[in-house]
Amino acid sequence: NAGVTQTPKFQVLKTGQSMTLQCAQDMNHNSMYWYRQDPGMGLRLIYYSASEGTTDKGEVPNGYNVSRLNKREFSLRLESAAPSQTSVYFCASSEEPGLNQPQHFGDGTRLSIL
Amino acid sequence: GNSVTQMEGPVTLSEEAFLTINCTYTATGYPSLFWYVQYPGEGLQLLLKATKADDKGSNKGFEATYRKETTSFHLEKGSVQVSDSAVYFCALSNYGGSQGNLIFGKGTKLSVKP
User: Fold this and answer.
1) pLDDT tens digits, residue range A7-42?
2) DSSP string across B44-97
3) What pLDDT is recorded for position A29?
4) Among B34, B105, B106, whose Cβ lies nearest the Cβ of A102?
5) Do A43 and B44 touch (CB under 8 A)?
6) Which residues face A104 on adjacent strands?
């Protein structure tokens, strides 16, 4: 089983360029999440989608937009990339939103903004 | 608010040594607690979880007990292997924030030498 698939795996952008990170899950999960991972910071939530058709801001949403395209796919867009957005981005999914639901993670997208 | 504090690494051990990674949390109510593991170049994988006080989560020889009185969820393993080398994240899930959101500690890097 593929689980959570993220594309691309690596990307280098110039400041001001735009980009969309793609995420798809094949587990029929209702909830999906986007995190960023920075050295010494753990993971921080950017946006999440509790169910198809809904999206909400997380801890660090500024500079990002998301689209829950359908139940399987949840994309993250950087409209005008900034060096501060250099990070590793992880998409995750869970069966339902809730306290006891473990999240399943993709392998990440390593993004560098020059 | 909700937060997770875990011991800073890196932690370097010899094979077959005993492992403890400390994790304490701050939360209102009754959060669920998780340990995730991240192997090099990969996404996070759920290692174990506990959903109520005094629960013990276990998997692959790792254990952690949910201690409400000390607000702790320390990770232990009796005999580590080289293959356990990874970054370990403690996390909690609680109401009051993004629904189903995970709050992560900063991660502890473990290196096991043969």
Assistant:
1) 999 999 999 999 999 999 999 999 999 999 998 888
2) EEEEEEE-STT-EEEETTEEEE-BTTTTB--EEESS--GGG-EEEEEEEE-TTS
3) 93
4) B34
5) yes
6) A93
